[in-house]
Amino acid sequence: MATVADELRHRLKNLAALMGAIAGRTWARDAHYESFMARLRAMSAATDLMFGKEARALAVSELVDHVLAPFKDEACKIRVEGSQVLVPNKAISGLAMALHELATNAVKHGALSVPAGGIDVSWQSTVEGTLELHWKEHGGPPVTKPEHVGFGTQLLRRGALPPPHRVDLCYLACGLEAHIHVVGDDQRV
Questions:
Q1: Contact between residue 78 and residue 139 where contact means Cβ atoms under 8 Å apart
Q2: I need a labelling partner for 62 at 20 to 30 A (CA). Which of 28, 93, 117, 134 fits?
């Protein structure tokens, strides 16, 4: 089984590299290119987590720390807390992309775009076996619901975690909140 996992990881990494090369030859090195490449890097990182040499279950805390690491610095206020919960294997990549998208938007428009802003990320597993992750921004610029749905919002709502998983976005004046529901089995450790 380890050989199959190694081969799958290798092929996925090659595919990501190919997609990056095509994007580099197709697009100008603008904000759209950088956004695409950041998403590609998030998917590649999720692939490493899913098919790493250790071939083990992945805790939510490890995934969150790994994806949010590029957004943390001495001044960054990202608080993370939650119980010991495992991410269902089928949801690792999607959850990584969703978290990366939320963090990218926080840097561009939300709580991480100002020095006083911060983010609280928490999660728990329900009795039904659903992982519920909560993203709450605070101290940033006032938030209003966007007039048009961009690619990032579409990715969050439909692309990163397809049904039965769900991402609910709440545009509160005090900060964006996202509630991510991941349906799966055996999430407790």
A1: no
A2: 117
Residue 132 burial (C-beta neighbours within 10 Å; 0-12, 13-18, 19+): middle
C-alpha span between 24 and 68 (Å, rounded) = 25
Compute the distance between CA of residue 155 and CA of residue 161 in angstroms, rounded to an integer.
8
Write down the H helix ranges in the chain. Answer: 2-26, 31-51, 60-68, 92-108, 151-154
Per-residue pLDDT of 56-108, as tens digits, reads 568 999 999 888 887 876 566 899 999 999 988 788 888 888 998 899 889 88
By CB atoms closer than 10 A (0-12, 13-18, 19+), residue 84 is: exposed
- Three-state secondary structure call for residue 132: strand
Q: Would you state the structure tokens that stand for residue 70, as one six-digit string?
A: 């590029």
Which H or E run includes 187?
none
DSSP string, 85-127: BBPPGGGHHHHHHHHHHHHHHHHHTSGGGSTT-EEEEEEEE-T
Q: Token match 């926080």: residue? A: 106
What b/e readout covers 7-39, taking b as 16+ CB neighbours within 10 angstroms?
eebeebeeebeeeeeeeeeeeeeeeeeeebbeb
At 164-182, the pLDDT tens digits run: 888 999 999 999 999 999 9
Which of 13-27, 77-91, 149-163 has the highest mean predicted lDDT (pLDDT)?
77-91
